[in-house]
Amino acid sequence: MTEPIAERMTEPMTRPATRLRFEQIRSVIRLEIKKTFFAKRGLWVYVLALLPVLLLIGHTIANSHQRERSAWLARQNEKPLTYQDLQAVKSGMTSEEVVALIGKPPIRFHWNRQRALGRGGSVNVAHESYHYSDGSNDLYLELTAGKVERVIIREGSNIGEDNIVFAGVFQFFFIRLAVFFGCLGIFMNLFRGEVLDRSLHFYFLAPIRREVLMAGKFLAGLLATCVIFVTSELLQIIAFTWNFSPNMRDLYLYQNHGLAHAMTYLGVTALACLGYGAFSLAAGMLFRNPILPAAAILIWEAINPFLPPLLKQFSVIYYLKSLCPVIVPTPPGTPPLFAMLISNPDPVSGTIAVIGVVTVALLALCASSFQVRRMEINYTTE
Amino acid sequence: MNDRIIFENVSKFYGEILGVNRVNLSIPAGITSLVGPNGAGKTTLMNLMTGLVRPSRGCIRVLGCRTDEPEELFNILGYCTQFDAFPKGLTGYQFVYSYLRLGGRDSASAEQLAWRAIDRVNLVDAAARSIAGYSKGMRQRIRLAQALAHNPRVLVLDEPLNGLDPLARAEMIVLFRAAAAQGCYLIISSHILHEVDVISDQVILLSNGYVVAEGEIQSLRSEIREHPAQILIRCSRPRELAARTMECKQTIAVSIHHDERGVLVKTRDADGLYLMLNQIALNGIEIESVSPADDDVNSVYEYLIGNDEVVQ
Questions:
Q1: Which residues contact B239 (CB under 8 A, 6 or more apart)?
Q2: Which domain holds residue A316?
Q3: What residues in B contact A376, CB-CB < 8 Å?
Q4: Which of A196, A180, A193, A189 is closest to A221 using CA atoms?
Q5: Domain check: are B187 and B276 in the same one?
Q6: Which residue among A55, A224, B256, B291 is the one 20 to 30 A from B176 at the CA level?
Q7: How many angstroms from the chain centroid is the CA of residue B47?
Q8: What is the pLDDT of residues B272-289, one digit of tens each?
């Protein structure tokens, strides 16, 4: 206040506009990033991001135990068995025939159970249970009175099926729910949270264009969500591939498009953060109550398959589904309505899908920048 | 008019509720106080001036800057609000430093300006502490530091002395005066009329969203014809003087001051009374001093608005 006026106006205004904006965006990110990562009210976002990781880690641990047990069983066999050997056992065979076919069972349980006869008497019936394994698939036989009554083959982890399960978790839980609600929680609070805290005026009183402020806040949110959800996806991929033996893992990653799929999943996650982040930011600025726009966006994304082609394009999931590397098949017997939700009848090419998500995000950001210029500080009405 | 703060027919409505209505102002450099009871529109006027709210009608220019262009506006303006919330987790220093960085200043310059501003408000010792642990007075001071950190030409201060102890109040008043002397524009809102009297070059009286009066206190007072002027005359023989002043037709009432060393005269013609006093002085009554007793903000406020909710 005591300096001459000429000196006051110097520093920030004399810098090139692009560099000035860049510096301002960096300052906003620096202020926001700590708040975004360590906000108490954002803890649930971490829980959401970690859920599929925990699910896959649990799956991997269970599979690992199963594999060890199967390998141990296979070592106990009288002779090496193949999957075809296990499939050769049929109901009605006698125990002798079974032993002749695949050898003595490594694990055998037997017990007797009384069966009632017609005239009030009873008879002891011998029950047996045989367990075999070829090293990855297990065979469970239940024998009654020396004959095979029930044959159960429990197949070990199958890379193809696991791949589809992983794709299903990614498309129907991770992207549509975890990333969606995570972005909602983080991006909606960028402005709305500060209005509720009554601290937004701090930014609005600084010599920074509101659009630049919005860009800085958006990038801070994007950085946070990308770090949280891309890390989660990376951990999921690690947990998923850890499930396989080293040979199988190498085969999957380097010769079976596994690495390309992994990179695509990470990219789709980042694009989902971009798309849903932009939507959530706009919703947080346009509406006071976040529940209604959140529900509206969720419904809009869910009914995407039923929308006319033009409207489909104004949706994030439309493009993300096209980018997903594995198509989740519709199981037989699925109700048509549900089958339609799962299927992606008119996918677009990868390039168009990326451009589509970016365009939808830019449209949402344009709406936000229009709104941020009109925003007023009037905390009493919030 | 790039050397004034201009309000042209400005109105602001919050839905059905009136904020301010048809405000026309041209505020020069110096200290201008906004005076009015709660809900009169003081903060709305300040928020309009700083772009925190947009006018429903009319146009505002601050030294030629539009209020919807924050980049230009806040390079010349600093606003110390009454909002008592801060970004979470910041220390006092970080609060001021971050504000400067948001404006695009480099780290070294922001650091230097931040410390200088914090020093001005005497908060250096507490600057490294989290604002969450500050007292009300400290929070007020750090807000002041933020408002003046970038050396703005226009300072908008909403109740800036609230929560400050008497020493700090005196220091701030000196600071404001120094800024005004250097050609800065200080817009201050206050409930405390005797402080407004001490620091203001001009006042804007607000009531129910309308500007009731604006200008220098004395000229405002002289324009209020319906209330007779009160003049305190200190003299050696008050009773004799009282009798003489009653001879003037424009004199409404005369009372002896409670210390028996002066006379309080209510008159409709102050100039006539002054001429008469010259005569009286020549006739032997020793007059020590003559001073208007009601040309302060308090009296003007009382005459124009009433004295509700005002600390005198």
A1: B256
A2: 5-65+158-381
A3: 52-54
A4: A189
A5: no
A6: B291
A7: 16
A8: 888 888 878 777 788 888
Structure confidence by residue, pLDDT tens digits, B79-132: 999 888 898 889 999 999 999 999 989 899 999 999 999 999 999 999 999 999
A56 shares its domain with A81 = no
Please state the separation of Cα B19 from the chain's center in Å. Answer: 19
CATH number at residue A118: 3.30.1450.10
Q: Which residues from A are below 8 Å from B when comparing CB atoms?
A: 1-3, 5, 7-9, 11-13, 15, 20-21, 23-24, 27-28, 30-31, 34-35, 194, 197-199, 201-210, 373-374, 376-379, 381
Question: Domain end: B173, B200, B220, which one?
Answer: B220
Confidence of residue B225 (pLDDT cuts 50, 70, 90): low
Contacts of B183 in chain A (CB under 8 A): 5
Let me know whether B113 and B260 are in one domain: no
State the residue for tokens 């059905």: B16
In a domain, B20, yes or no: yes
Q: Residue A56 corresponds to which tokens in the numbers above? A: 């896959």
Same domain, A34 and A117: no
**B235: containing domain:** 228-293
- Contact flag A376-B81 (C-beta cutoff 8 Å): no
Same domain, A132 and A251: no
Across the interface, of B50, B104, B148, the residue whose CB is closest to A24 is B104
Instruction: Give a yes or no: residue B298 inside a domain.
Output: no
Q: Which pLDDT score is estimated for A41?
A: 78
B195 and B236 housed in the same domain: no
Residue A143 lies in a domain: yes
Q: Go through chain B and tell me how many residues it has.
A: 312
Whose structure tokens read 């108490």?
A40
Q: What pLDDT was estimated at residue A10?
A: 44
Residue A332 has pLDDT above 80, yes or no: no
- Is the confidence metric ipTM above 0.85 for this complex? no
**Among B93, B131, B84, residue whose Cα is nearest residue B113:** B93
Strands B5-14 and A147-154: unpaired
